[in-house]
Amino acid sequence: MEVLFDSLGLSEEILKAVTEMGFTKPSPIQAEAIPSLLEGRDVLGQAQTGTGKTAAFGIPALEKVDISDKRTQVLMLCPTRELAVQVTEELRRIAKYKKGLKLETVYGGDSIERQIRSLKIGAQIVVGTPGRVMDLIERKALKLDFVNYVVLDEADEMLDMGFREDIDTILESVPDERQTVLFSATMSKPIMGIAQKFQEDPVQIKITRKEVTNENIEQTYFEVKQRGKIEVTCRVLDAYDLKQVIIFCNTKRKVDEVTEELSSKGYSVESLHGDLRQTQRNQVMAKFRSGAANILVATDVAARGIDVSGIDAVINFDLPLDEEYYVHRIGRTGRAGLTGKALTLVAKDEKYRLRQIETYTKVKIDKGVIPTFEDIVGVRKARFISQVEEAVSTGDLDLYEDMLGMLHHTTGFTTEQIVAALVKINMGVQKSEFADNDLAWDADRRPSERGFEKRGRFEDRGGRGEERGSGRFGDRGGDRGPREGGGPKRNEPGMVRLFVSVGRKDRVQPRDIVGAIAGEAGIPGRVIGSIDIFDAYSFVDVPERDARKVVEAMSGNTIKGKMVNIEVAR
After folding, report:
1. Where is this motif: Q motif (predicted)?
2. What is the DSSP letter of 202?
């Protein structure tokens, strides 16, 4: 039997708003979660981005809020400011006709004084990141005494970012008589630990990969040399005539490189990564949503929570280092019944990771043919002809009709030469350093191209969670405790031991060191090796390839409020 929104017992105000948004039939997660939440049950849901989970926990929250009471009744925690903003915007759309409702979004990077003033006025629903929520609780600006509905959205991300202690503290500050809703893309032991500690007989809901995989998305990969990825990206953008695109890279540095290259080639492009201030992020997203920039180059974490309708393609410039991230990325396109494309550039030594993604998603990704230079010239010629036809049909050419004569007179060129030059200027396409047969993989493998196969799997996954605050402490805690002795021990192959000028006397714990290094250097906490903490100093192992970045990133930074010096241990 098909479930419709009007059969869920929703109020007229919510049903009217949902209908205006174009929805009549709830998604699988909504159909399962909303009735249980309206009944007052706790819910533990496993669902990916793009499944409609915001409405799944948001609609019941809006239905339960007492508009006449200005005190905070609903608290929603999100891992990033972008996701917090997205959740708030979605709730505002659903609550369009619920007059008197006040929502407030709180996150770092925005004025805490402004947020405190807004909370004093009153907000029935507060959406925020754990760190800023903790700050506001400590300042007694956010009071949780009357909260009866708590949501942890993308809980696995919050744990990866080192928020476990904050989450525990926040949930312990909320009255016991409450509903607790927890959504996560994965159900790890730490996630289950939170559920067991803070939920009461939750209804468990799982949206399978088959349901998550959007059949409206055409998935294609291209076998590309690493140095040819920019050229192929340009050809793909032109050949598919893509209007609004997100290009994903694994690191902030690569985002900047790709953005600069595309901008220099005349594309309207903006970048999004963790080094941008909130005002800059808002400006970038405003340009992208309005179409002032039609290409957004982003890292995975910076793009969490981006919800822009009409994205017609996602390009994986770098193959994601975690299978789940592939699902998150391609879920940005092909939404609301629209079709979309997921185009992935695969270097030769990345192909085994492509196979892992296919196994994980249970979808065969088709191999694409790289458009040739002649293909792109043909596309741009056709586009130019259409532009000429449109310009002639709209008229107002009398101002320019004397230009051909002037060009003949001043340059001495023939009509054919002048027209060809104007076409060249308009089309902007130039032969690059790459011949077509230089873009795809070589037939023979060179020794220098075998890096991925020589590295172990643990090191291989080093890019997941770029920009996160820390690793999964519960899974790695065993090899991070202090050891006997006072000097640096021999580090594992491929790792470099660093000296850190804080220790036990500074109340430093392993998670503090992991969080600081991961957050400032942009490396995932899970690749950080053993940590030895002594009274006045500590040692930490990091991958050799990241050592210099860690030392530079931590220069002038603090751990536990104390300025630190980090250098390679002697």
Report:
1. 3-31
2. P
